[in-house]
């Protein structure tokens, strides 16, 4: 198996080392793991692509490349440059430092990479490590992902649904904010929504007098409804959420048709 890995935390992020080990386990001794990751951190860029300017890509080592662009750019670079003659069987993105559950999904560059993989017709799985008081100070805060990641990926490859729809299915996996030994299992859940908290902007004035702003995240420990990702993670479970990039609100179609008839 040939696997392409990327992330949004950057080529030197510790979570990418964890993902490398996961990918090598899944690929097996006869497989290949290729890395194309952002040269610098790209958290929060979503499915952004560098459409109006070129992206420099540099080879850093054997099967290891850095691109001055977004995670989605890295997937495009992997598919159309680095691996143009031998497309990957799977794209893995992560392991993100922090959860990409709930509304975070909409901002995530980790997810954006897998959206691009799915749009290109390649299987994709995004993986993120939830942080909290029980794991943030561990010697290896990515312990849960490191211990359970390969098994989750292999189960999805063996038993997950992989279709050929226009907007292909992909998977979002979040590991709970606890030590590996405390993980209770895996739950297939919906994307949740943290009520009463959100991203915000804090204005600031530089010594030069220029105005700037800092984007601030909301409280990540706010629970979502039962049967959703954040709730499962805070209860000690690995969450697996099947997703598509298609955004139509199907539940609103019938009423809207009546209203506009």
From TrEMBL:
<feature type="binding site">
    <location>
        <position position="96"/>
    </location>
    <ligand>
        <name>a divalent metal cation</name>
    </ligand>
</feature>
<dbReference type="Pfam" id="PF01975">
    <property type="entry name" value="SurE"/>
</dbReference>
<feature type="binding site">
    <location>
        <position position="43"/>
    </location>
    <ligand>
        <name>a divalent metal cation</name>
    </ligand>
</feature>
<keyword id="KW-0547">Nucleotide-binding</keyword>
<keyword id="KW-0479">Metal-binding</keyword>
<feature type="binding site">
    <location>
        <position position="9"/>
    </location>
    <ligand>
        <name>a divalent metal cation</name>
    </ligand>
</feature>
<dbReference type="InterPro" id="IPR036523">
    <property type="entry name" value="SurE-like_sf"/>
</dbReference>
<comment type="function">
    <text>Nucleotidase that shows phosphatase activity on nucleoside 5'-monophosphates.</text>
</comment>
<feature type="binding site">
    <location>
        <position position="8"/>
    </location>
    <ligand>
        <name>a divalent metal cation</name>
    </ligand>
</feature>
<dbReference type="InterPro" id="IPR002828">
    <property type="entry name" value="SurE-like_Pase/nucleotidase"/>
</dbReference>
<keyword id="KW-0378">Hydrolase</keyword>
<dbReference type="GO" id="GO:0008254">
    <property type="term" value="F:3'-nucleotidase activity"/>
</dbReference>
<dbReference type="InterPro" id="IPR030048">
    <property type="entry name" value="SurE"/>
</dbReference>
<protein>
    <recommendedName>
        <fullName>5'-nucleotidase SurE</fullName>
        <ecNumber>3.1.3.5</ecNumber>
    </recommendedName>
</protein>
<keyword id="KW-0963">Cytoplasm</keyword>
<feature type="domain" description="Survival protein SurE-like phosphatase/nucleotidase">
    <location>
        <begin position="3"/>
        <end position="195"/>
    </location>
</feature>
<comment type="similarity">
    <text>Belongs to the SurE nucleotidase family.</text>
</comment>
């Amino acid at each position: 198996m040939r696997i392409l890995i990327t992330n949004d935390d950057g080529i030197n992020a510790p979570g990418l080392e964890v993902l490398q080990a996961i990918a090598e386990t899944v690929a097996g001794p006869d497989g290949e793991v290729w890395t194309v990751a952002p040269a610098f951190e790209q958290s929060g860029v979503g499915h952004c692509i560098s459409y109006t300017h070129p992206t420099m890509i540099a080879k850093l080592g054997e099967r290891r490349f850095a691109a001055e662009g977004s995670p989605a750019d890295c997937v495009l670079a992997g598919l159309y440059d680095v691996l143009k003659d031998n497309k990957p069987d799977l794209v893995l993105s992560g392991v993100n430092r922090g959860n990409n559950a709930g509304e975070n999904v909409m901002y995530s560059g980790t997810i954006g990479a897998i959206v691009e993989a799915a749009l290109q017709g390649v299987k994709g799985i995004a993986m993120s490590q939830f942080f909290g008081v029980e794991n943030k100070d561990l010697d290896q805060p990515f312990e849960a992902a490191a211990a359970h990641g390969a098994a989750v990926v292999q189960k999805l490859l063996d038993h997950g649904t992989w279709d050929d729809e226009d907007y292909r299915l992909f998977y979002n996996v979040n590991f709970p904010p606890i030590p590996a030994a405390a993980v209770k299992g895996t739950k297939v859940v919906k994307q949740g929504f943290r009520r009463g908290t959100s991203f915000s902007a804090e204005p600031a004035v530089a010594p030069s007098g220029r105005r700037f702003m800092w984007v601030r995240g909301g409280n990540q420990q706010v629970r979502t409804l039962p049967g959703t990702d954040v709730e499962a993670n805070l209860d000690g479970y690995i969450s697996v959420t099947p997703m598509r990039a298609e955004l139509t609100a199907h539940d609103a179609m019938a009423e809207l048709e009546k209203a506009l008839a």
